[in-house]
Amino acid sequence: MRYSTNWYQTALSIRIPISYGDASTTINNVFTSFPSIGERSFVRYSYTIKSAVSFTSNAKYLFSTGFNRGYRSQSRRADLVYKNTKTDMTSGEALGRFMYFNSNGARISGGVILGNLDYTHTCNNKSFSVVSGLFEQGDRDGLKTNLNLSEPDRVQFR
User: Fold this and answer.
1) What's the helix, strand, coil split of the chain in %, to 5?
2) What are the tens digits of pLDDT across the range 37-92?
3) Among 6, 31, 38, 83, whose CB has the most other CB atoms within 10 angstroms?
């Protein structure tokens, strides 16, 4: 009889207190720029466990089973101040400017479970037959929140 089990675990947390970003679009000759400044951070966690057992009652019969379980979760937080500017690409005229605060968070997690059951029969002439069954199940879950507030008073707007 043989038996083995393995366990792996990782955790990572990163917090960037002040970071800068810049994004822009051009639609119908209107250039929109919305650079941002603020905190971006995330936490990541995962684990995996694997186990296997094999049993040989005699040289002809081998039974094996295995189990795997994995899980991963990640949370992200961003509290950013955007400075939105719209410019007419033809005339260069500024069409509008405003600042706003965006607070958003996201959490996503997922897991997987695998199980197997195997039977091997070895014949007298060394040929063999194998019957195997496998079970798989996975899930994923997530949530995102987003809040926009005007600057500098941070009054909620739509």
Assistant:
1) 0, 85, 15
2) 888 888 888 999 999 999 998 889 999 999 999 999 999 998 898 889 999 999 99
3) 38
How many residues appear in the chain? 158
Give 15-83 as a DSSP string: EEEEEEE--EEEETTEEEE--EEEEEEEEEEEEEEEEEEEEEEETTEEEEEEEEEEEEEEEEEEEEEEE
pTM for the whole structure: 0.63
Question: What's the token pair of residue 136?
Answer: 């798989």
In sequence order, what are the residues at sequence separation of 6 or more whose Cβ sits closer than 8 angstroms to the Cβ of residue 133?
116, 117, 118
Token pair 């393995």 in the structure block, residue: 6
Per-residue burial over 74-104, b = 16 or more CB atoms within 10 Å of its CB, e = otherwise: bbbbbebbbeebbbeeeeeeeeeeeebbbbe
Taking the chain, what is the end-to-end CA distance rounded to the nearest angstrom? 66
For residues 131 and 119, the answer to whether their CB atoms sit within 8 Å is yes
One-letter identity of residue 58: N
